[in-house]
């Protein structure tokens, strides 16, 4: 199943219970689609949500509300039935918002172009945590519920661990000499895998974030987005347009799953029942793949080289993965380019966004 957008989409998210998928566009629009096994996705609405590019979108409040973050520095709550705005936080950040994720039913996190991370509590209607650790855009984030920590990657080439309970940055890696673009937590929380523009996957051992413990060179081009399939395998989206199934420790490209197009993969997401894999690319197309069909056998995809690892692929670094080692954050050097459409800074207060939710 596929649907063509008029402009390039940046992000997508699936509804937590219904067959709905939402996309956010470079023009600031939100598009909601209903999908089914027997038909092409049906567009339910397309609304102009933001003045500038809408880079991040998520369903919240059990799927009743769509939250979106934009380069215009705002966060918008939209009604899932009508697409109409419920509440808008004009100046959530001083710089354009690049990432937005849900932590719980009542908390979300946003990351901006200058490396600032903010946590919003919908019950208190305000920002409850702010982390200023990175020097460049926040490229990806994930929430580790067991330790109540947010992991973030940045264009400054570092990985950070941000402790919500203590409201402080617990750890930050050394500069990796390359941007970190995506991350997933694998091996029952023992390994953190980060994608880079060179195609290398960097593996960090939990509690030892100063430097990566392993480098996997199986991709030949930039790994822009990743999804964890299970504790041993992930699905990667690369700038060559190929979606791959990747094994972690032992590190190997298990098989190419599909070729979205010849353009970079912008985002990947699973449907709530994991029946479908959604992908977005610079070809302006949303594609919904039957996940089981993709996994059933190797696909014929052009231009896929054999996997190669910089290590033997064994987990023999000797780390005590149960440890939660606390290291002082390091100051990263250098700065990388940000996404186009960066928002303008503003100093207006941002405290009552969730009052109407």
TrEMBL record:
Annotated Acidic residues bias:
313-324
Give the superkingdom in one word. Eukaryota
Sequence similarity: Belongs to the WD repeat WDR55 family.
PROSITE patterns tied to this protein:
WD_REPEATS_1 (PS00678), WD_REPEATS_2 (PS50082)
Repeat (WD) positions are 258-292
Where does this protein have compositionally biased stretches of type Low complexity? 325-334
Q: Which UniProt keywords apply?
A: Developmental protein, Nucleus, Repeat, WD repeat
The family database entries (InterPro entries) matched by this protein are listed as: WD40/YVTN_repeat-like_dom_sf, WD40_repeat_CS, WD40_repeat_dom_sf, WD40_rpt, WDR55, WDR55/POC1
Q: Give the residue ranges for region: Disordered.
A: 303-357
Q: Which organism is it from?
A: Panicum virgatum (Blackwell switchgrass)
Q: Which GO terms describe its cellular component?
A: nucleus
Q: What is its main location?
A: nucleus
**Listed SMART domains:** WD40
Cross-referenced SUPFAM superfamilies: WD40 repeat-like (SSF50978)
Subcellular location per UniProt equals: Nucleus
What protein am I looking at? WD repeat-containing protein 55
């Amino acid at each position: 199943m596929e649907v063509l957008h008029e402009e390039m989409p940046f992000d997508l998210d699936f509804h937590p219970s219904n067959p709905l998928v939402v996309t956010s566009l470079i023009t600031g629009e939100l598009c909601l689609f209903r999908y089914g096994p027997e038909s092409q996705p049906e567009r339910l609405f397309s609304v102009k949500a933001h003045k500038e590019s809408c880079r991040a979108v998520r369903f919240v409040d059990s799927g009743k509300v769509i939250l979106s973050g934009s380069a215009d520095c705002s966060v918008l709550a939209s009604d899932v039935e009508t697409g109409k705005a419920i509440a808008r936080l004009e100046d959530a950040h001083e710089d354009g918002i690049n990432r937005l994720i849900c932590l719980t039913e009542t908390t979300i996190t946003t990351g901006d172009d200058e490396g600032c991370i903010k946590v919003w509590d919908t019950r208190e209607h305000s920002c409850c945590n702010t982390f200023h650790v990175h020097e460049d855009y926040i490229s990806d984030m994930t929430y580790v519920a067991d330790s109540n920590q947010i992991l973030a990657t940045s264009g400054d080439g570092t990985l950070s661990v941000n402790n919500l309970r203590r409201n402080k940055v617990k750890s930050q890696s050394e500069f990796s000499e390359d941007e970190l673009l995506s991350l997933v937590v694998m091996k029952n929380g023992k390994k953190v895998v980060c994608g880079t523009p060179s195609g290398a996957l960097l593996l960090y051992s939990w509690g030892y974030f100063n430097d990566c413990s392993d480098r996997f060179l199986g991709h030949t081009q930039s790994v822009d987005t990743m999804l964890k399939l299970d504790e041993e395998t992930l699905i990667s989206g690369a700038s060559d347009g190929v979606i791959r199934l990747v094994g972690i420790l032992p590190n190997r490209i298990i098989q190419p799953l599909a070729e979205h197009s010849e353009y970079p993969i912008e985002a990947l997401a699973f449907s709530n029942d994991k029946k479908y894999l959604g992908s977005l690319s610079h070809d302006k197309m949303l594609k919904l793949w039957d996940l089981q069909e993709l996994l059933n056998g190797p696909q014929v995809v052009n231009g896929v080289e054999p996997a190669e690892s910089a290590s033997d692929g064994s987990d023999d670094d000797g780390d005590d993965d149960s440890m939660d080692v606390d290291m002082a954050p390091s100051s990263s050097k250098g700065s990388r380019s940000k996404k186009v459409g960066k928002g303008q800074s503003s100093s207006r207060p941002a405290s009552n966004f969730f009052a109407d939710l």
